[in-house]
Specification:
By secondary structure, the protein is an alpha/beta fold. The protein has three domains: 102 residues, no CATH class; 195 residues, no CATH class; 227 residues, no CATH class. Helix content is 17%, strand content 34%. Strands 19, 20, 21, 22, 23, 24, 25, 26, 27, 28, 29, 30, 31 and 32 form a 14-stranded parallel sheet that branches. Strand 11 and strand 12 form a beta hairpin. It is elongated. It starts with 12 loop residues before the first helix and ends with a strand.
């Protein structure tokens, strides 16, 4: 067949069309392959980014787990720890200090180099299983993280405080004078002289700073001009209080209480009048304040140590009637005048440690496959209350009689018209302010006014049991949450919400179950929160925080570890036989709706507290700071916010 005329030039067109179409198809296929490859890469990168995010989140959760005390340090901070302090238990201060946060401590030169070691920043390497610079999450996951911990408020460098004091009573002031009954011209004066202004202690190194809390001066005089002579009039035992008020980094008050014990004084000589502090150690918003022997101090001979140049921690010194209790504390007596520069002057010296931050900033960097990296920052707060506690193991808050609207008159109340303290008369009944964990002593019974203190001391003098420590007026050192009914009510609402969330809230009219050892917190470790909006009769074991807005009655044998708060007007009662032990703190602080509108709001707006111990059983109430701290575990170390950087 021959070509038609005129179509000869069309030869090969089909081939060209095929090639063009093939090219277009190849371009489309290439684009499709490229798009699929790009999409696969994006998906892979997104997965890696998500994995890095999860790794950073795991770093924050791991740090929180460490701060909740669930991890032991490796290596130990102290291979041979003592109870004071618990070196191998994490706290916020240990978390930010290189020496305790990290497993190694590089030199200053190493940290100043261009490539400093990772442990030049606080990263919890002593508490987390780092491999090199990161913590690996699974051998083949390709995920890891590292954390860095810091103090956003910079509270741990300086402590600034001032001090005031009085002898015998606030109305008496800082000095006390005794006159020789046989010669009125001869007098003895003991005076407390506070430090001038405020004192700043530098604790940035982490080492406790030496502090000055003032001095006691013993002076003698005679209008007849005699400078020597027979012993001056015997100085009776007299109470003193030093009020240490910190203003940086926190506003807090701690009272150093003690006795000026009697001794022999001659003209021109301080003699052997001894200072006997209620405790050597005090916790001030997590700072540890420790008294030390002043230069030239010696052990009192009746301490039985025979070691010169020291102060002595003494326990269970029985005071005769009418006191009738045992003193425990720190005894200091000046050396003879010839060995000291200023006869008659005894310095109140000690050390104070760095305060623990309330908040921490945790920066966590997470790593995923293919070089993916994410960084998260979180603020974690120690607890809702920044140290929920009380100044004594048995704290009774309220006036002598129920006050109405802030007026001075007492209003009859059906169940709480008058302060009641009945400590019990069975033996043994024990009240102890000695901390079972720390070498610190608190007032075993604390009240908020002097008339109630007289009632407590009178009851103690007539009881058959034993009281270790000195009951005191603790109104000046109440924590914020106990200073007014409104403050307490606000705190209890938070506790109520937590109890509702955990199923341990019993509403008004609901009868709480009989205690079988599991209904009321965890006895073994002293944790949990139970809130009873009404009365409660409790026996058996329990632990953590217990709030009762009505009357609390411990019946028969009981054993509680933690914090007990009673706000009902009928207060607390123990009845029945059996052995009862409370290891922690009990606060009886009754209030009602009228208390919340009391104007002006103060500690006097509380109703009169009632505490009654009856029955034939044994009973022990002793302070345990560890149990109180454990009770806060459900409210501690919570993350306030997380931000991606």
């Amino acid at each position: 067949m021959t070509d038609e005329p005129g179509r000869k030039n069309e030869r090969g067109a089909a081939l060209v069309m095929v090639l063009l179409i093939s090219f277009l198809l190849m371009v489309a296929a290439t684009a499709l392959i490229l798009e699929a490859s790009t999409n696969a890469g994006n998906v892979t990168d997104a997965t890696a980014e998500q994995q890095a995010y999860y790794a950073a989140e795991s770093g924050i959760q791991s740090a929180v787990n460490v701060l909740r005390g669930n991890v032991a340090p490796n290596p130990l901070v102290n291979a041979s720890p003592s109870p004071l302090p618990n070196d191998n238990k994490i706290d916020y201060l240990k978390a930010i200090k290189l020496l305790t946060s990290n497993s190694t401590l590089p030199t200053t030169g190493q940290c100043a180099s261009a490539s400093p070691p990772a442990d030049c920043a606080a990263r919890l390497s002593r508490w987390m299983p780092y491999t090199g610079d990161v913590v690996t999450m699974g051998a083949n996951s390709g995920m890891s993280y590292k954390v860095q911990v810091s103090d956003p408020d910079n509270v741990g460098n300086l402590v600034r405080y001032g001090a005031t004091g009085y002898i015998e009573s606030q109305s008496n002031g800082p000095s006390k004078t005794w006159t020789d009954p046989n010669d009125p011209s001869r007098v003895v004066t003991i005076r407390y002289v506070p430090p001038t202004g405020t004192t700043t202690a530098d604790v940035s190194s982490g080492v406790s700073a030496v502090t000055d809390f003032g001095r006691f001066e013993v002076t003698t005089s005679s209008t007849g001009g005699t400078v020597t002579g027979p012993p001056m009039p015997a100085v009776p035992r007299v109470r003193f209080v030093i009020n240490v008020r910190t203003v940086q980094p926190y506003n807090t008050v701690k009272l150093i209480r003690g006795y000026i014990d009697p001794g022999t004084i001659t003209l021109g000589s301080p003699g052997n009048v001894r200072l006997f502090y209620d405790s050597q150690n005090y916790v001030v918003q997590s700072s540890l304040l420790s008294l030390t022997p002043p230069s030239g101090a010696a052990c009192n001979p009746d301490d039985g140590t025979g070691s010169p140049g020291c102060g002595v921690l003494r326990e269970n010194i029985f005071l005769p009637d009418p006191e009738g209790y045992y003193r425990s504390g720190f005894s200091v007596i000046p050396n003879p005048p010839a060995t000291v520069v200023n006869p008659g002057v005894t310095l109140v010296t000690g050390t104070i440690s760095a305060p623990e931050p309330i908040r921490l900033l945790i920066r966590s960097t997470g790593y995923g496959p293919n070089g993916a990296e994410k960084q998260l920052e979180a603020i974690i707060q120690k607890n809702y209350f920044n140290g929920l506690g009380a100044p004594s193991p048995l704290t009774l808050i309220g006036a002598t009689c129920t006050n109405s609207g802030g007026t001075s008159g007492c209003v009859a109340h059906p169940t709480a018209s008058q302060f009641l303290f009945s400590p019990g008369n069975s033996e043994p009944i024990i009240y102890s302010g000695k901390d079972a964990l720390l070498k610190a002593f608190l007032p075993p019974v604390g009240v908020t006014n002097d008339p109630n203190l007289v009632t407590v001391d009178t009851a103690i003098a007539g009881m058959n049991g034993s009281v270790y420590g000195s009951s005191s007026n603790i109104a000046d050192e109440l924590p914020y949450w106990l200073q007014t009914p409104a403050n307490l009510n606000a705190t209890l609402q938070l506790l109520k919400s937590t109890a509702q969330a955990t199923g341990k809230y019993y509403a008004p009219g609901v009868t709480p179950p009989n205690n079988n050892g599991t209904n009321y917190g965890n006895y073994a470790d002293g944790t949990g929160i139970t809130y009873v909006d009404g009365d409660l009769v409790l026996g058996g074991e329990g632990g953590g925080i217990l709030v009762v807005t009505g009357k609390l009655r411990f019946h028969g044998g009981f054993d509680w570890k933690g914090l007990v708060v009673v706000t009902g007007a009928a207060g607390f009662e123990r009845s029945g036989g059996g052995e009862g032990i409370l290891q922690g703190t009990m606060v009886v602080a009754p209030y009602n709706a009228q208390s919340l509108t009391c104007n002006p709001q103060s500690v006097n707006c509380f109703l009169s507290p009632r505490y009654e111990m009856s029955g034939g059983g044994n009973s022990t109430l002793k302070y345990n700071s560890s149990n109180v701290t454990n009770g806060l575990s459900a409210l501690s170390n919570f993350v306030k916010g997380v931000a991606e950087k």
